[in-house]
Amino acid sequence: MKIGFAGLGVMGEPMCRNILTKSGAPVQILDLNPAPVERLVALGAVPVESIAEMAKTADIIFLSLPGGLQVEQVISGAGGILENANPGLTVVDTSTLSVGLTRRLAAALSERDIAFADAPVARTRQAAEDGTLLTMVGSDLDVFNRIRPFLSYTSSEVLHCGPIGCGQLSKVLNNMILFENIVALSEALAVCKAAGMDPRRLFETLAKGSADSFALRNHGMKALVPQDFPENTFPINYAMKDMSCALELADELGIELQGAKLAWSLMERARESGNGARYFPILSQEISSSEPAS
């Protein structure tokens, strides 16, 4: 089984490395940045010059790209997978993009007898390093069973969520719920501080009750309480990309997402304040800034 991996960024490089070192399969790699290519070549990966070259020789291609624009270009653009793949190729997209685009690309690939799975990932860069990601897969069962052994090298949990698009649906709704949780925690934080209570004591108390959540214990305790919002850690700009996918789908379905729209408006304000590259819980500062003066 010949593997291709295109996109060796923050998540893609460690995912590819885990597949390369654990599977024993030959792995071709492609990225515009030479640094991760050089690191993986040192471990035995084979660099290629183009996605066309990879599509002609690989049995499974994994994509880990910034968003829908890049995935669409790699698949259906000039010199892309559609133009060059041999029938029987399987494409696994671990990026995050809209459900609609995912299904359109899958349909176009199917016409060329190319199988497709949407398999976005969740959890942190460290989880990618450790091979303990959560991967949510949308595909038919035959494709899922074909790719699961390789995904298991990158993830401690590989879940079949349903047919094409259901992996992306699970990912964007997961993130939508997370972002809305951060809004609720930020509102609690603003009230807590204005009323004179220690925010850490509040969150420690909430963590022992029915308000406990992953968002509280991680984003709340580690970012909101210390007000620590570094760059290069899932920024507002990335969060807005994911949230836009959820809002776009809801609009298509005629569903009003009031909580999601509130989170979106706070993200917009954070970006307009110059914080688009900062860690996304910085949206909490937009709630604090709206407090009336004492």
Automatic annotation (TrEMBL):
Keywords from the UniProt entry: NAD, Oxidoreductase
SUPFAM superfamilies reported in the protein's UniProt record: 6-phosphogluconate dehydrogenase C-terminal domain-like, NAD(P)-binding Rossmann-fold domains
Domain of life: Bacteria
Domain 3-hydroxyisobutyrate dehydrogenase-like NAD-binding: residue ranges: 165-277
Listed Pfam families: NAD_binding_11 (PF14833), NAD_binding_2 (PF03446)
Claim: GTP-binding is one of the keywords in the record: no
Domain 6-phosphogluconate dehydrogenase NADP-binding: 2-162
Signal peptide: none
Protein name: 2-hydroxy-3-oxopropionate reductase
Organism from which the protein derives: Rhizobium wuzhouense
